[in-house]
Amino acid sequence: MISFTATNDKVLLNKLYNAVFGSDIPGDVGYVLVVDGIPCGVAKLSVTESVSHIHTVGILPKLRGKGYGDFFTRSLMNVLIDVTDEIVIDYPASYFLQFGFRRDGDEMRIASEDLVFPKKCQCGDKPH
User: What's the distance, Cα to Cα, between the start and end of the chain in Å?
Assistant: First the structure.
């Protein structure tokens, strides 16, 4: 089972954040991705009604390449579209273009109502 939740457990947040980013998590609250009962990802967001920032999203190095980061990021954005007018990614990455983000200097931005979720299909040439 895969889930994620917000937490203020600084011991857990710092352990994950250090393993992924090499430093303690800034602030007191973060989001944790849990796979089969094991914390394996961490994210730092700032959320307001008008603009929400995704500062960082990361997966433990030994669990990368399994789609957990994509799942975690999509899940976070899916929640944000219901609580904020605009979503800002604090770093430019072409990954976010598929969702409709546009580059704005060193950030990526989108109005929540314009966010799209392209289908991820591993089915090759089979009809979906």
Answer: 24
